[in-house]
Amino acid sequence: MQRNLIRSTFLAALMSMAAIAHASGDHAGGHDHGDAAIGEPGDAARITRNVRVDMADTMRFTPAQIIVQRGETIRFEVVNNGRVRHEMTLGTPADLLSHAEQMRKHPEMEHADGNAVTVDPGQRGEIVWHFTRSGSVEFACLQPGHFEAGMRGAVQVRGTKS
After folding, report:
1. In what order do the strands lie in the sheet with 73-80?
2. Which residue ranges does the record assign to the Blue (type 1) copper domain (predicted)?
3. pTM
4. Could you tell me if 78 and 88 are in contact, meaning their C-beta atoms sit under 8 angstroms apart?
5. Residues of the chain with pLDDT under 70
6. pLDDT tens-digit series, residues 152-161
């Protein structure tokens, strides 16, 4: 009971901070990715293609480098081949670093954002993401210690979808 109260209080505090950050125009502190440089959650009915991403206890993603075209909606099929929980979170370098720090402080934090999926050992998950801008979008596993061990990758978003 006390654990649920602490979790609820923590989540309420996070939501308040995100609302304040959004109101002040500072998206780096929150998770408002709708108009961020990384794109937006995609519509499953408009998926352009599927990309499988494997996660392993070697603290690596395969592939770690992915190329997409601006305008594509990608279904990332995220497969945990390891024996520990992993996740894939899309974000800016600042967002990922900030979130990794929060995960170290609160390792049981669960994600409900469209840009992230947490996958238990031997399981699969997915992220459907629409890439709206050219450039680089990073991804990482933010489970405590995984980001620091190098469990990261990047999506290179090129040009315009033809």
Report:
1. 40-41, 124-130, 73-80, 49-56, 60-62
2. 51-157
3. 0.75
4. yes
5. 1-36, 110-112, 161-162
6. 999 999 987 6
